[in-house]
Every structure is written in structure tokens, then in C-alpha cells.
Specification:
heterodimer, A: alpha+beta, Rossmann fold, OB fold (Dihydrolipoamide Acetyltransferase, E2P), 2 domains, 6-stranded mixed β-sheet, 5-stranded antiparallel β-sheet, 24% helix, 34% strand, B: mainly alpha, MetI-like fold, 11 helices, globular, ABC_transporter-like_ATP-bd (chain A)
Chain lengths: 355, 275
């Protein structure tokens, strides 16, 4: 709507303190228009605080919030071009589904047939048309969440903010709703900003993810990029499964950690190395390509792959994922091998790596 | 079965007390009101003479009118004052500030009714600190109203505060987020969800007001006569049957109004937060 950048969001040096501790510590971030953006991190990382600052439900101690290029830092929530879907849904218990959805339109002065049309339209979008006259208490958790999303989308916000929208749902419904959310984002052409602690959820839905920890953004990038090239040890650990090696020591043209040898790695330039489970191959312990030996402890079948739990002579536990049908069993002693490009170098500037 | 028996054992003392004291007094009142002469006999032959003279007396109805008017005025005013007060206590961040506010609201109950009432008399009298502002209020109905509102405020604040606290904070935030300004958030979300608290506060205040005796007697200056006073006067005159009939009228009035409130609460019951 309006300018081509109407639905972009920009945070500039946001600081928010609660009782002296910074929940957000100088966070800057640019969310592109019409994108599905996820704020991902463990609980207490500041992701919900950031979302509330964008929504206008809280005011920053420092910094600015720009929506569509305009400074909205001082705009109260009810005048912002954003709408928030609360974790609980926050449906009004004394209103029917239809009245809940109509509430925002009435607040904006939209009434009559046009309002009715828009209510029906958003009910159809979330496939809740037949529940229009029900009271929220009579709906299931998933249905309530759909209504909450419809109630926000009916306002046609420039930016839709979602606070852990799927966390209250059971797993199969979560998986379904991930695709639904993605579809609604594409159909409405609205910018979605979604807070979640579930990295699989963020990976599946987002065009871009900001990984947060302790009030700061660790790395903001596309899911593939976060997966292939984590910038910090935290991101390497948090996004997907990983084998992270620290305590590197220089050793004959490479580096060694936990009895695993990484040729061509300069131990002074990196703070940690990471190898994805699916990039590890199991070879004969004596093979020249073997970077170290380990004993197979567990073999788990997941359908397409086998998940192999390994322990090596330093007691280090490792995870490998191999195609189903690989002949391996618990008790085997194997060699670990991986291509040079499978080793992700985490730069030494990541001071947190020592922690 | 055992749980049932335990429950019965737990409510037994309360039930026994109520049956003995409350029910027997009601029975006695009914029995006394149905005779014209005071006799020591617990059961006498039915005689509707007292009822006929009480109900046929215009004075009774004017007293009933005053009692009801006082009840309605005081409950409406008390709720109007109590609601914003409860909201303030709810929104105060620091614990000690909320505790201080609650103490102030509670304070009238901690002071003896006689002290409190004479305090009001001193404030409102000619030459008193509030005398010029509330000229002519003392020993008239407004003086009685202002003093009753004062003492009954906590009985309205508590139910309203409890119902405000039961409304999840995110509902107000959701309303704001959907574009509702402060007024609309109050009228469309907070108020409908706290009607049960408002009703039970008003109910309590009303019941207390129509049975109040000391405050109207001391601050009414003989001009504000309520049922509780005529009952007292008739007992002083040893007119037990008349006093009993008036007490029954007071009881019926209270029950009638309380059941109206109960009905209203049922009608808005859909607004109750069930999460």
C-alpha cells in the first residue's frame, strides 16, 4: 500500500531495560517489505520485547522504530500500521468470532456491508467461516489461533506481528499451520514478523531469520545461510543439529580438537569448527581420509536416514546422519571423514566462544 | 463417599449456626408480626391486625421510600467512585503503593462507627472545615449519603478489583493493537468483562445501606428516617409486633433487590472470563 516500502520495518539501536537489566541491548535490524521474517532465540533473549516495541505496546529506552520508512517510535499502539497476534490469541471472551474480527474494523470506523464483506473474507482465508457465530470458549486451541490471525489480518496491516503463534498447538497441527501461515503471508502480501523459539519452525517458514541471544542479534540471514555459514558458535549450535569443536590446537598442517584432525585449518584464526551430522561419512578406521576414530554407540532409524550416536577416545559425543540402508551397528569402530567444505569455520572474533 | 461425608462434616458447624440463629430469628419475627399484642407465647393465634395497620400507614411507605432511595443513591455513587479507585490499585506498579492505597480504602472499617460518624458531623457542621463547601448537608440526606459512601467504599472496591484482576492484560493490549482508543477499550472490553464485579459490589453496598442504622440516625438529624430506625423506635416503645412486621418488610426488600441483582448477573454471565 502506498510507497513500495510501506511494509518494511527498521529497528535502529533499540534499548529496553527492565529493572536495570537490558532486555534489548542496542538492536538494529531491517525487515524487508512483503517478507516472512522470524525472530528466533531461546526464552529471555528479548525477541518478544522487540516485537512489542514494533507493535507499540512498549516504548524503547533508546533507539527508534521505523515502519515503511516513517518514524513510529512515539506512535501509540492503536495508531500503528501493525497488528499483533498474541501468544494466547487474546480473543475477547464476551464476543462471538464474528464480533471479535469486526472489533478492529469498527475501531477504524469501517461499518456496514463493506465491513461484513471483509469479515467474511478473512474468515474464509483462515477456513473458519462456519464458526462465525461461535463464542471463543467453544473453539479448540488451533481454531482460536486462526480466529486471532483473521482478526489481525482483517485490518489489512502493513506488518503482521506474531508472538509464538504455534506454541500452544500440538505437533501435527503446528506442522500444518506452518504451511498455512506461509501461504497466508504470500496471499496477503503482508510482511509477517514471527517470534519463535522453535528453530525448525523458523527455518521452514522464514525468508529471513534474526537469531537472538541475551538481548542482541547474533546473526540475521536467510535460513540456508544460517545453516551453511553460522557466524557464531551459538548460531551453529542453535540452528539445526551440529557437531561443534572448540579448544583447537595447531597440529602438523592443520588443527586438532577432541582427537579429530582438521587439515588446513589455522587454529589461530578460528574459535570453533562445526560439521553437520549429514556431512560426516563413516570409513574404515585405517583409511587415509579418516580424521579420527570413534565407536558407534546408538543407531536410530528415522525413515530416510539413520542417526548414529558416536563416542571417540576423548569421550566426545558426536552425531552422524547416514542414508537409511547403511550397514552399521552399535559397537563398530569406525573412522570419521568429511570433505573440507563440510567444515564451517567460526571466526575468532566470536568472543563468546570461550564461554 | 468419604469425601462427601468429610464435606458434610466441614459445613456442619456453619449450617448449625445459621439454622439456630438466623432461621429461628426469622421464624420468631414472622410469628411476632402476626399478632397485635406482645405475648410471651412463642406461638399465638394468627392476627393480621399489625400487618394491616403497618401496610395501610402512609408513613411506612415513606420510610420504605427513603430506605430504597438511600440504598440506590449510595450504591450507585459508591460503585462510581470505587471503579476508578480499583483500577488505580490494579495498575500501581510497586507493591507498597498498592498496599498503602488498600489501607486507605480499608481505613473507614477500622474506625468505630460512632467516631467516624461524629467525625463527619464535625467536618460538615457550620464552621467546620467542609462546612462552607457542603452547606446544609449535615442532618439532611446528602450528609448521610456521603458518610455511608465513605464506609462502604471497600465493599465495592474489593469485588471490582478482583474482577479487574481476572481480566487478562493481553485483552486490553489486543484491543489497543486493533485500533481501539482508551475510551473504546474501557467501554467495549474492560467494562463488559468486569460487570460481575460491579454487580456484586453494588449488591453488597445496597444490602449494607438499607440495613444501616447508626449513620442515618446520627447524621440524619431526625429528618432521614429509614426502616432500621423505625424498627428501633418501635422496640423502644415495646411495639414488638410492629417492629417485627417492619423487619420482615426490610428483609423482603433486601431479598427482592438481591434477586434482581442475581438475575442481572446471570444475564451478563456470558461475559465472564472462562480461561
Amino acid at each position: 500500500m502506498g510507497s513500495p516500502h510501506a511494509s518494511s520495518v527498521e529497528a535502529v539501536g533499540l534499548v529496553r531495560r527492565f529493572d536495570g537489566t537490558a532486555a534489548l541491548d542496542r538492536v538494529s535490524l531491517r525487515i524487508p517489505e512483503n517478507s516472512f521474517y522470524c525472530l528466533l532465540g531461546p526464552s529471555g533473549c528479548g525477541k518478544t520485547t522487540l516485537l512489542r516495541l514494533i507493535a507499540g505496546l512498549d516504548t524503547p529506552d533508546e533507539g527508534r522504530v521505523l515502519i515503511g520508512g516513517r518514524d513510529h517510535t512515539a506512535t501509540p499502539a492503536h495508531r500503528r500500521p501493525t497488528n499483533l497476534v498474541f501468544q494466547s490469541g487474546a480473543l475477547f471472551p464476551h464476543m462471538s468470532v464474528r464480533d471479535n474480527i469486526d472489533f478492529g474494523l469498527r475501531s477504524a470506523g469501517v461499518r456496514g456491508p463493506r465491513a461484513r464483506e471483509r469479515v467474511e473474507e478473512s474468515l474464509e482465508l483462515v477456513a473458519m467461516g462456519e464458526f462465525a457465530d461461535r463464542m471463543p470458549q467453544t473453539l479448540s486451541g488451533g481454531q482460536r489461533q486462526r480466529v486471532a490471525i483473521a482478526r489481525s489480518l482483517v485490518k489489512r496491516p502493513d506488518v503482521l506481528l506474531l508472538d509464538e503463534p504455534l506454541s500452544a498447538l500440538d505437533l501435527s497441527l503446528q506442522l500444518h499451520m506452518r504451511r498455512e501461515l506461509k501461504r497466508w503471508q504470500q496471499e496477503t502480501g503482508t510482511t509477517f514478523v514471527c517470534v519463535t523459539h522453535n528453530q525448525a519452525e523458523a527455518m521452514e517458514m522464514a525468508d529471513e531469520i534474526a537469531v537472538m541471544r541475551a538481548g542482541r542479534i547474533e546473526q540475521a540471514a536467510a535460513p540456508e545461510h544460517l545453516y551453511e555459514a553460522p557466524a557464531t558458535r551459538f548460531v551453529a549450535d542453535f540452528i539445526g543439529e551440529n557437531n561443534v569443536f572448540t579448544g583447537l590446537a595447531a597440529d602438523r598442517g592443520g588443527a586438532r580438537a577432541d582427537h579429530v584432525f582438521f587439515p588446513g585449518v589455522d587454529a589461530d584464526l578460528v574459535s570453533a569448527l562445526a560439521v553437520r551430522p549429514e556431512r560426516i561419512r563413516l570409513v574404515d578406521p585405517g583409511a587415509p581420509e579418516s580424521a579420527g576414530t570413534a565407536r558407534v554407540v546408538t543407531v536410530g532409524f528415522t525413515g530416510r536416514t539413520l542417526r548414529i550416536g558416536l563416542t571417540n577416545e576423548s569421550g566426545r559425543e558426536l552425531l552422524a546422519e547416514l542414508p537409511a540402508g547403511t550397514r552399521v551397528q552399535a559397537g563398530d569402530t569406525v573412522g570419521l571423514a568429511f570433505d573440507p567444505d563440510a567444515v564451517v569455520r567460526i571466526p575468532a572474533r566470536d568472543t563468546e566462544a570461550a564461554a | 463417599m468419604r469425601a462427601r461425608r468429610a464435606a458434610a462434616a466441614l459445613i456442619a458447624p456453619g449450617t448449625a449456626y445459621l439454622v439456630l440463629v438466623f432461621a429461628s430469628i426469622i421464624a420468631l419475627l414472622l410469628s411476632y408480626s402476626a399478632r397485635t399484642e406482645q405475648t410471651a407465647a412463642l406461638v399465638a393465634t394468627l392476627d393480621w391486625g399489625t400487618w394491616r395497620s403497618v401496610l395501610g400507614d402512609g408513613y411506612t411507605w415513606s420510610v420504605v421510600g427513603t430506605t430504597l432511595r438511600l440504598g440506590v443513591t449510595v450504591s450507585v455513587l459508591t460503585v462510581l467512585i470505587a471503579y476508578p479507585l480499583a483500577w488505580c490499585i490494579h495498575t500501581v506498579r510497586r507493591g507498597w503503593q498498592a498496599a498503602a492505597l488498600l489501607f486507605v480504602v480499608f481505613s473507614p472499617i477500622l474506625v468505630s462507627v460512632v467516631v467516624r460518624t461524629y467525625g463527619w458531623a464535625m467536618l460538615l457542621r457550620d464552621g467546620g472545615p467542609l462546612g462552607p463547601l457542603f452547606e446544609g448537608w449535615l442532618y439532611h440526606e446528602p450528609g448521610v449519603v456521603i458518610a455511608l459512601v465513605h464506609v462502604e467504599l471497600p465493599f465495592a472496591v474489593f469485588p471490582i478489583l478482583a474482577s479487574i484482576r481476572s481480566v487478562p492484560a493481553d485483552l486490553g493490549e489486543a484491543a489497543a493493537d486493533l485500533g481501539a482508543g482508551p475510551l473504546r477499550r474501557f467501554t467495549r472490553v474492560l467494562l463488559p468483562l468486569t460487570v460481575p464485579g460491579v454487580l456484586s459490589g453494588a449488591q453488597l453496598v445496597f444490602a449494607l445501606t438499607i440495613s444501616a442504622f447508626a449513620t442515618p440516625a446520627l447524621l440524619g438529624g431526625g429528618r432521614v428516617t429509614v426502616l432500621a430506625q423505625t424498627i428501633y423506635q418501635n422496640i423502644q416503645l415495646l411495639q414488638w409486633p410492629t417492629a417485627a412486621a417492619q423487619a420482615v418488610i426490610l428483609l423482603v426488600l433486601a431479598l427482592l433487590v438481591l434477586s434482581v441483582f442475581g438475575l442481572a448477573a446471570r444475564l451478563v454471565g456470558g461475559g465472564r472470563v472462562t480461561r
